[in-house]
Every structure is written in structure tokens, then in C-alpha cells.
Amino acid sequence: MPFDPLPPVASWRHQGARAGFEVAFFAAERGGCRVEGTTTATEDGESWIVDYLIHLDESWRTRSARITGRSGGATLVRVIDTDGEGHWQVDGVAAPELEGCLDLDLEASAMTNTFPVHRLQLPTGQAVQAPAAYVRAVGLAVDRLDQSYSRLANGHYDYAAPRFDFTCRLTYDRHGLVLGYPGIATRVQ
Questions:
Q1: Which Pfam families does the annotation name (predicted)?
Q2: Residue boundaries of the structural domains of the chain
Q3: What are the residues whose beta carbons fall under 8 Å from the beta carbon of 124, sequence distance 6 or more?
Q4: Strand pairing category for 156-161 and 166-172
Q5: Segment 5-28 mean pLDDT
Q6: Whole-Å CA distances, 109 to 1, 83, 112, 126, 139
Q7: 135: Cβ–Cβ under 8 A, 6 or more apart, which residues?
Q8: Which pLDDT score is estimated for 1?
């Protein structure tokens, strides 16, 4: 079932694992969508800010991203490019460990869980593996995150990231944006 078009802006309050806020702006662009946002939080006594500009193609596959992170008095930038077929470059260097990933997942963001749900358009009852290029909030390290989504009824998906021994039930709205991410964030707009 397709989602309604994205609103121009959405925001989330981080709660549980961290305290903070995220705001994302969505705009259609030739051949896809542009997502621009900022997320800030304090987690385990460390504060950070992550700014992102992500370009998606018409199939919701990540095509490029520019991520700027500030923490511990340092500012870092990561430029990520992909061909949409699972081949990635990080700061201009091939990243074979990301081979096969079609999505970008920012540790700092609840919003990036929007991408695989839109891309996959799962029917109720179906589960799928959706590995992602995972960018850490502090230090902006990029590596592979194996994860899965299983669609339930009424905008609910079971999510699992075995590396972190993490599972939860995500709730999405009619736009395919996360409303509730238990222990992480809640949508406020």
C-alpha cells in the first residue's frame, strides 16, 4: 500500500536512550527526494549535533549524503555516494563492506527508518532483511548494519538490529514517517 506524499517538515523528540530533538525537511527534486535536517542530543553524557543532506532516487534508494557532525569540540564531514545498486563510496573511497546496502541509516536519526519502509512497500505479514550503511553520531564512522523489517497491520513494523541485540515495534503514520520508536524517539510534528 503506497504512502501519502511526505509533508514539508517533520520533527521528533529523542527520549529514552538520549535526550534531544530532530527536525527534517522534505522536498521533491528531479528524479527523487531531498531530505535535509538536524538532530541534536545528549547520550551517555556526550552531546552531539548531526546535520544531514540526503538525496534519494524515485525508488527511495539512497544516492548521496553529506553529513556534518559536531561532538567533543571537533567537526567532521562525511560525503557518501552510492549508485543505488549497492555500491558505496565514503569520502571518495570505495566501501566494499557496504556492498548490497540500499539505505542510509543515521544513528542520530529516527527519520532514516523512513527510507526502507518506503522503498520496500511490504505487504502485511512479510519480513525482509534491509542492511544499511550506518553512520555513527559521534565520530561519523560508517559501517554496515544488518537489520530487518516485518510489516504488521495498521502502520506497525517489527524492527531488529541483531548487532545491538535490539528489537522494537515501530509505528508509522500515513506518510510512512516514524511516529513512535520505542526507547529512541517520538514524532511531535
A1: Glycolipid_bind
A2: 9-187
A3: 151, 152, 153
A4: antiparallel
A5: 97
A6: 25, 23, 6, 25, 15
A7: 65, 67, 78, 80, 104, 105, 106, 107, 108, 141, 142
A8: 62
Burial class, 106, CB count within 10 angstroms (exposed 0-12 / middle 13-18 / buried 19+): buried
Phi and psi (nearest 5°) for 119? -65, -40
pLDDT at 2 over 90: no
| 84 vs 55: CA distance, rounded Å | 11
pTM value is 0.96
The answer to whether the CB of 62 falls within 8 A of the CB of 56 is yes
Rounded CA-CA distance 134/70 in Å is 17
The answer to whether the beta carbons of residues 23 and 14 sit under 8 Å apart is no
List the Cα angle 177/161/65 in 5-degree steps: 55
Alpha carbon of residue 108 to chain centroid = 8
The CA-based diameter of the chain, rounded to the nearest angstrom, is 46
Identify the helix (H) or strand (E) that includes residue 54: strand 46-57
Contact 149, 155 (CB under 8 A): no
Closest among 81, 73, 143 to 107, alpha carbons compared:
143
For residue 6, the SS3 value is: coil
